[in-house]
Design brief:
By secondary structure, this protein is of the alpha/beta class. It has one domain (about 5-160): 3-Layer(aba) Sandwich (Rossmann fold), CATH 3.40.50. The chain contains six helices and four strands, in the order E-H-E-H-H-E-H-H-E-H. The chain has a four-stranded parallel beta sheet, with helices on both faces. Helix 1 (about 15-30) packs across helix 6 (about 135-160). It is globular, with a radius of gyration of 15 Å. The mean pLDDT is about 95. Bound molecules: 4-nitrophenyl phosphate.
Length: about 160
C-alpha cells in the first residue's frame, strides 16, 4: 500500500521542503516496494505561494536536490486525512500539530523528524531562517540522516 508522508516546519520554505526534496531523491535511489507520496506544509501561512528560501535552494542544489514546490499552510481538516505520517521538525511544530489534531488517530500520525536519525543526536532540526549559511548545511546533514532512517523503517515494514 502507498505511504503518504507530510513534512511540517514553521514557514514551509526551508526545512520541510528540504525534507521533501531529500526523501524524494533518496527514495527513488532505494527502489522501495511501497510507493511514497511526499509533500510538505508550514504551521504558518506567511510564505504561502512562495518558492523555497533561496539560501535553502542554493545549499540543496549543491548536494543535487531540486526544490520546485511552493509553500502552503498546514490544513488540519485535509492533511490529517490525506497523510499517514505527519513529521514535524522541532518541538514547537509538534506542539502546534498536536493542538490541531482532532482525535487520537490524528495524534498517532504525528512524529518528530529526529526520531528517525541514525548518526546525529539532535532532538530537533534547528530553524535556519535567521542564522548563517552553516545552519542550512546542518539542516541538510540532519535531513539526509533522518530520511535514511525513515526509509530503513519503511523497508522493514515491507517485510512484515
Ligand atoms: P522553516 O524556516 O520553518 O524551516 O521554513 C522558517 C521560515 C520562515 C520563518 C521562520 C522559519 N518566518 O518567520 O518567516
Amino acid at each position: 500500500m502507498k505511504k503518504r508522508i507530510l513534512f511540517v516546519c514553521l514557514g514551509n520554505i526551508c526545512r520541510s521542503p528540504g525534507a521533501e526534496a531529500v526523501l524524494t531523491q533518496m527514495a527513488s535511489q532505494r527502489q522501495l516496494v511501497t510507493p511514497l507520496e511526499i509533500d510538505s506544509a508550514g504551521i504558518g501561512g506567511w510564505h504561502a505561494g512562495e518558492p523555497a528560501d533561496s539560501r535553502m535552494q542554493k545549499h540543496a542544489l549543491k548536494r543535487g536536490y531540486q526544490m520546485t514546490g511552493t509553500a502552503r499552510k498546514f490544513d488540519p481538516d485535509r492533511d490529517f486525512d490525506q497523510f499517514d505520517l505527519i513529521i514535524g521538525m522541532d518541538g514547537e511544530n509538534i506542539r502546534a500539530l498536536r493542538s490541531m489534531a482532532r482525535n487520537d488517530a490524528d495524534k498517532k500520525k504525528i512524529m518528530r523528524m529526529t526520531d528517525f536519525s541514525k548518526l546525529y543526536s539532535y532532538t530537533s532540526v534547528p530553524d535556519p531562517y535567521y542564522g548563517g549559511e552553516d545552519g542550512f548545511e546542518l539542516v541538510l546533514d540532519l535531513l539526509e540522516d533522518a530520511c535514511d532512517g525513515l526509509l530503513d523503517k519503511l523497508e522493514q515494514e515491507n517485510l512484515r
